[in-house]
Specification:
Elements: H1 23-43, H2 54-65, H3 92-107, H4 116-133, H5 140-152, E1 157-159, H6 166-175, H7 191-197, E2 198-200, H8 212-220
GO molecular function: AMPylase activity; ATP binding
Organism: Kribbella solani
InterPro entries: Fido, Fido-like_dom_sf
Amino acid sequence: MAEDPYLYPGTETLRNKFGERDKDVLKGLDYAAAMDRQRQLESGEADVPRTYDAQHLHAIHQHLFQDVYEWAGQPRPDVTVFKGVPGGFAPPNLIDRYLTDAAEAISSADWASMDQEQFAQQAAKVFAYVNQAHPYREGNGRATKLFMQHVSELSPYELDYTRIPDKVWNQRSMLSGPDIGQYEPVPEMMQPVFEVLAKERPDGPARTMLSPELQKARQAAGLDPGEVAGRNANPQSSTGAGTDKPKTSRGRGTQSPERG
């Protein structure tokens, strides 16, 4: 089996900016640093362009893990993440395809007019594609949860991750993946989860989806392409911090510690 280039040789510890060789110590450092960066995004102290595509997700991951990994925000180019699952997540050559499908699911939906059931259905679809992409060697769950919170800003709902126990989130996330040898994920497994997570925003959608042309124009002007007049200056968020723990089984109905 080829050596994982993301690990220090002879260890199970990811190469990191701290130079830490103990994986358990690194875990604590990783979570502390990423949580501080997450607070910046949630408070409005820092922000990323709301393009609702792969670049948006990469920007979130880069911000969260910039203090921990040199490759923060960069998709894994030559490593397939298995996490204890025979089929694994998307191989490197399919990451872009899954993220493109997720972006199309976002841009084609009329988020602002959705009721809670419609929102849950579409959010589950977006999540299933992003989760199966699993673009990064570590930190996929936390970046994906924050990305989904940004997507929810387009709708009359926000996501309260405290409403679902980790065990349920982990199991349903695992079950949303495609069967071995198949491409299409199974978002229906996550729809009930998003129905529980969704709660109404008092003032309706916090943002609006802009055309690619307008996004580029605003980017050229140095503006956030997702920002609109009247947006909430400091929208409340209860984004949870997921983890990328190994899954134990891909079979339907099997418990798993995966947090997306």
